[in-house]
Amino acid sequence: MADLLSDDEIQARLPDGWERVGDEILRVFEFDDYLEGVAFATEVGELAEEEFHHPTMKIGYEEVEVRFTSHEEGGITDADVDMAELTNDLR
User: Mind listing the UniProt keywords for this protein, alphabetically (predicted)?
Assistant: First the structure.
């Protein structure tokens, strides 16, 4: 079981563009059209499978919302921050 990050650790390590909302971190990625967002969501899904840490995603017309949390631990862990950084690298 991974250790939960403290509030200070989360704030210090939160990647660019991400915000904390309760026990999750989230970012909304913007796109020029719907299919570009769908393709990005697919890339995030493939990354999540490789890393075995899966986000919640919501696909909109020109945006994709990505949320990470560690459900078993009940909050935000290193794995969530690491996945947020890797997700940023896809853009």
Answer: Lyase
